[in-house]
Amino acid sequence: MTKQAIIQKLEEGRLKKNLPEFKVGDSLRVHTRIIEGDKERVQVFTGTVIARKGTGLSETFSLHRVAFGEGMERVFLLHSPRIAKLEVIKRGDVRRGKLYYLRGTHGKKSKVKALHGFDQETPAGAKVEASQKEIEA
């Protein structure tokens, strides 16, 4: 058995299974667990997916948003136990794999066209919560 096959086999048990399907250009709402001292709270970050990188356990995605006139970006590990919930808000109609050009834009330039025919009640756009078993693991 090769080294790569062994790593893949070990990662299989830690991958989240109930993640919504999303791609670059979609708008997401990510609920993140924040631990401050003894308290734990959930913070929501909403933005447009501008990149997806990696495979397996180390897969990441970058969200971009403009708030108070300032652009901000955040990178999340897709299979992280810190992510409580992922919601797909809007499907984007883009023709590129990475949307780094959104970094310097604001106003109407920073908008991504919506994909027609997307309904939030469809299984791909449904809200998905991480099970308690995955959180503890």
Automatic annotation (TrEMBL):
InterPro entries attached to this UniProt entry: Ribosomal_bL19, Ribosomal_bL19_CS, Ribosomal_bL19_sf, Translation_prot_SH3-like_sf
One Gene Ontology cellular component: cytosolic large ribosomal subunit
BP-aspect Gene Ontology terms: translation
This protein's record includes keyword Glycoprotein: no
GO function term, MF aspect, one: structural constituent of ribosome
PROSITE patterns, per database record: RIBOSOMAL_L19
Keywords: Ribonucleoprotein, Ribosomal protein
Superkingdom per UniProt: Bacteria
Function: This protein is located at the 30S-50S ribosomal subunit interface and may play a role in the structure and function of the aminoacyl-tRNA binding site.
Family: Belongs to the bacterial ribosomal protein bL19 family.
Protein name, per record: Large ribosomal subunit protein bL19
Natural source organism: Candidatus Criblamydia sequanensis CRIB-18
Lineage: Bacteria, Pseudomonadati, Chlamydiota, Chlamydiia, Parachlamydiales
Gene name for this UniProt entry: rplS
